[in-house]
Write a structure and sequence with these properties.
Number of domains: 3
Radius of gyration: 29 Å
Membrane topology: Multi-pass membrane protein
CATH superfamily of the largest domain: TonB-dependent receptor, beta-barrel domain
Distance between the termini: 26 Å
CATH topology of the largest domain: Maltoporin, Chain A
CATH architecture of the largest domain: Beta Barrel
Keywords: Cell outer membrane, Ion transport, Iron, Iron transport, Membrane, Receptor, Signal, TonB box, Transmembrane, Transmembrane beta strand, Transport
Shape: elongated
Pfam families: CarbopepD_reg_2 (PF13715), Plug (PF07715), TonB_dep_Rec_b-barrel (PF00593)
Subcellular location: Cell outer membrane
Main location: membrane
Largest sheet: 22 strands, antiparallel, barrel
């Protein structure tokens, strides 16, 4: 990292010129340094021009760099007059000559690094339809991404390090970072870092590290690091960019977005950057509410001096979004959408309504929680940070980056959307856990209109017969939607920092320091059953029992909400303290060989408690009215708490070797031994009303890789052979006991996995205007040792068993995953087309059901209207492919993927099941104005 301060002397001399690419197009934002003491620097403007004033006389080195181009270091002789020097930058096709900071304690040229790092630059980011952080990362080689739920509730992992990231904690092994620090310090169910991250014009580039040195450079994230780096501008003039986007998603649902960013020097070597975005998105699938809206503001204020810099930065995020559940399908061999649903358009989310549900924590105070499933998750994040770098005497330097944030994520959405037949006793047990059990004439009314939609007699089901309709009106598919109101309130106040001391001497770059993280977090979860029709765009149902000559019993309130707070109750809190000390040495054994050795000792402390709960059992329920049975079973705290207080200590290490074969090629290898401490879901999910006696297991991760990097004039590539092994994987299933209407997690089983594979990233530029890119992974992921606890559908352990699936293929990991694209750019016209291929994956560890391979095509065309204004049309999933990204198991309330075995499929060949399709087509028109 080159830092500096403008030299002010009386001589009226200057150095200026223009920086262009190989097509003679101006490069805006290139950095130009002159190695005077102190250093002079400039940033090229929109015309590619740079200006260095008050230049001294003498011989100096002029350095020019810009991401995506090979740097230039030119010896220049200045005589005190005005000098003009212009340069053409040669494309650095894979950014191998670019300095990267992710996965390294000191900035390192990628070609000389013994890590697997890929970079997305500004041009790459502008080719991507904005659909969330995970969706963007599909362009990183070797990265498996499941963004089928939308912008949040996503899954990202690499190299088979995936097992604990397959459900509701999809970033379990990797660190999502902004400017070198994690977005969030902790994770647990429905609380991941993607809730608090949005990419916009303030993002300059993305660096992605896969495995390897993440074991020693990241906080509890041995699987990799995805680092979003913010814009830095040091132009003396005000520069910026505004971007307007509009388009349609799915079946004509509109999307609107505005981004802006500004930056400039402020004098005395101060500079600022500020920007953000706001969007309004009706969603990729059909709902009766706005799917996403909101945005963020980010800034940084930097002071540069002769020894380094001081940067103050911050972010304010205030955003609403939702996430999609699965879609019903039949035909195990070739899944087809069932019950009138559609893989491209069906959402099966409850419609918008406004309910007030008693808060089980404060029943005596009469407190309620407002609930509207259209709100999805409301994420707020206020963060402020300080980044400092200073060169000291005797080749020492110090860097410290620290950040404080306060976060809140409030979920109000549907959980589950299973088929529950009107002839299934579960339908009538769920309103009050059988207290009382409604038998007789059940009436279903539309909550918005009050119209009766169906009247049935459910008494025949207890003799093994189906229900009887008592009028001509029927409910769609003779079923209700098996869903719950999912109210979840999460808060966290966090502080994190990383301090690094660096010493250079002889042939060594020595780094050591420590990182700390503190999080004070709490979570409250409450779930109630909700009656709605089982169809596209469900209708909420008010449900009553109306037996002749008897009082009307209300199974739901006027909004269709039933069994207030009786399905889920979690009220937990935790203090997390994380500390690590690390040491790393990059030893230049010779001019062409570097050895990189690192150790990290980490300690993670978890202290907290879970409230025990019990149903509210007063006669007549909370309101004392025996006709309103929907409030008869509210879960409330007993006053007892189950505490946890555990400390996890472990040592991780990593060793890498880089052999520089030529100026443009290198061979590297690395072996790493990392660890993954449990996340808070271990305590919050697995110990309902039982003591927390034992600490969670630390997962052990071994990784080895051998790679080759080469940057030729028109062809560049990296290729990496890798091996990874993951041990002590805690696996527990989410289960529903329909005889007691209780929801529980099965006892944890500890398993191992192993993956061999080959990653590659290539780019070919055969002629000046045409570029081809090809990246991907070929791998063999195995469940080396794998047991699943079979609860046999009930809490009763008498009939439980353990099933051994050792040797099966690891679920959800494709054997083949690649991206192939071509890009054209000449004069003012640019275009691209991308083919993203995801190979066949196992739907569960039983290997009983496979998710078929699918392809997605993205495309775009752009035109530079003038030097400031440009326009682009982008399309994601251009052909509207209906690939399947995930599998949730049988189409029944409380089912999970592991419940589907080959025996189950053989016994139920015509059964329906739940899959999660990929997002449908999105098209976008973008206008950019840069100045």
């Amino acid at each position: 990292m080159i830092l500096g301060q403008t030299l002010l002397i009386n001589a009226q001399s200057s150095l200026n010129g223009t920086i262009t690419d190989s097509n003679n197009n101006p490069i805006s934002g290139a950095t130009v340094f002159l190695n005077t003491e102190p250093i002079l620097f400039s940033i090229t403007d929109t015309e590619g021009k740079y200006y260095l004033t008050n230049t001294p006389t003498g011989n100096y080195i002029l350095s020019i760099s810009y991401l995506g181009f090979k740097p230039i270091n030119d010896n220049v002789s200045l005589n005190g007059n005005n000098t003009e020097l212009s340069y053409n930058l040669e494309s650095d096709l894979l950014n191998l000559h670019t300095v990267v900071i992710t996965g390294n304690f000191t900035p390192t040229i990628q070609l000389e690094s013994s890590t697997s790092v890929s970079t997305l630059n500004t041009k790459d980011l502008k080719q991507i339809v904005p659909q969330g952080t995970a969706n963007l990362l599909q362009n990183i080689p070797g990265t498996f991404v499941d963004a089928s739920a939308g912008e949040v509730f996503t899954r990202v992992y690499t190299r088979g390090i995936s097992a604990a990231a397959e459900d509701d904690m999809g970033w379990y092994y990797v660190s999502l970072q902004e400017d070198d620090l994690p977005v969030s310090l902790v994770q647990h169910s429905y609380y991941g870092p993607d809730l608090f991250h949005r990419a916009d014009l303030m993002t300059a580039n993305v660096e992605a590290l896969r495995g390897g040195s993440a074991s020693i450079t990241a906080m509890n994230a041995p699987g990799g690091v995805y680092n979003f780096i913010s814009r830095q501008t040091n132009s003396k003039e005000l520069t910026g960019e505004a971007q307007l986007q509009t388009g349609i998603k799915g079946e004509g649902n509109p999307y609107y977005r505005a981004d802006a960013v500004l930056g400039s020097q402020l004098g005395n070597n101060w500079s600022f950057n500020a920007g953000g975005h706001y969007r309004h998105d009706e969603g990729a699938r059909n709902t009766d509410f706005t799917f996403s809206k909101g945005g963020q503001f980010k800034f940084n204020l930097t002071k540069v001096n002769s020894r380094g810099y001081f940067k103050l930065y911050g972010k304010y995020l205030n955003d609403y979004t939702n996430r999609y559940n699965g879609v019903a399908a039949t035909n195990w061999d070739n899944p087809e959408a069932a019950f009138g649903q559609d893989f491209n358009s069906s959402a099966l989310l409850m419609p918008s309504y406004n309910a007030s549900i008693p808060d089980g924590r404060y029943l005596e105070d009469g407190k309620t929680n407002r609930f509207n499933p259209s709100k999805g998750v409301h994420a707020k994040d206020l963060a402020i940070g300080l980044d400092l770098f200073q060169s000291l005497n005797n080749n020492w330097s110090i860097k410290n980056n620290m950040k404080f944030s306060t976060k809140n994520a409030n979920w109000q959405t549907s959980i589950s959307n299973a088929f529950v037949s009107l002839s299934d006793p579960t339908t009538y047990y769920l309103p009050s856990n059988g207290n009382p059990f409604p038998v007789g004439q059940i009436v279903f009314k539309n909550t918005r209109t009050g119209d009766e939609m169906a009247r049935i007699d459910n008494s025949p089901i207890f003799a093994g017969s189906p229900i009887n309709y008592l009028t001509e009106s029927t409910l769609p598919n003779d079923a209700v939607l098996g869903t719950s109101t999912w109210y979840k309130d999460n808060d966290a106040d966090e502080f994190m920092q990383q301090l690094t001391l660096l010493k250079t001497w002889d042939n060594h770059d020595f780094s050591f320091g420590f990182s700390t993280g503190i999080s004070n977090t709490s979570v409250f979860t409450q779930g109630s059953f909700a009656f709605s029709t089982y169809e596209n765009n469900p209708t909420m149902l008010e449900v009553t029992l109306e037996n002749p000559g008897e009082p009307v019993l209300y199974l739901s309130d006027e909004h269709g909400v039933s069994n207030y707070g009786g399905l889920f109750f979690t009220n937990s809190r935790a203090d997390v303290f994380q500390a690590a000390t690390f040491v790393n040495d990059v030893w230049a054994i010779s001019d062409n060989i570097q050895l990189d050795l690192g150790l990290r000792y980490e300690s993670i402390y978890h202290k907290g408690s879970n409230d025990r709960s019990t149903p509210f059992t007063q006669n007549g329920g909370l309101d004392g009215d025996e006709t309103t049975i929907y409030d008869n079973n509210i879960l409330q705290p007993t006053g007892d708490r189950d505490s946890f207080n555990f400390n996890y200590n472990y040592l991780s290490y990593s060793a890498g070797l880089n052999i520089k074969l030529t100026e443009d090629a290198s061979l590297f290898g690395r072996y790493s031994r990392g660890n993954k401490a449990p996340e808070l879901n271990y305590y919050f999910n697995n110990f309902a009303n039982v003591p927390i006696i034992n600490a969670g297991e630390v997962q052990k991760i071994k990784q080895a890789e051998l790679g080759l990097k080469s940057a030729l004039k028109d062809f560049s590539f990296t290729t990496t052979l890798f091996w990874s092994e993951l041990k002590n994987i805690g696996v527990s299933n989410f289960e529903f006991d329909d005889s007691t209407s209780s929801i529980f997690y099965t006892p944890i089983q500890f398993n191992n996995s192993q993956t061999f594979g080959l990653e590659w990233e290539t780019i070919y530029n055969p002629i000046q205007y045409l570029t081809f890119r090809f990246n991907g992974v070929l791998q063999n992921p195995k469940a080396r040792k794998w047991n699943i606890y079979d609860a046999a559908g009930s809490v009763d352990i008498a009939d439980d068993s353990i099933i051994n699936y050792s040797g099966n293929r690891l679920p959800f990991n494709p054997k083949l995953l690649f991206n192939l694209s071509s890009e054209f750019q000449k004069n003012k016209v640019s275009s691209f087309i991308k083919w993203k291929y995801t190979g066949k994956r196992e739907g569960n560890v039983a290997n009983a059901f496979q998710l078929a391979a699918y392809s997605i095509f993205d495309a775009g065309i752009g035109y530079q209207i003038n030097k400031n204004l440009s326009a682009r049309v982008l399309a994601s999933n251009l052909l509207n492919s209906d690939g399947l990204a995930n599998f949730f198991g049988a189409n029944s309330f409380g089912a999970n993927a592991n419940g589907v075995t080959q025996d189950y499929i053989n016994d139920n060949p015509d059964a329906s099941f739940i899959v999660v399709p990929i997002l449908p087509r999105s098209t976008m028109l973008t206008l950019n104005y840069a100045f």
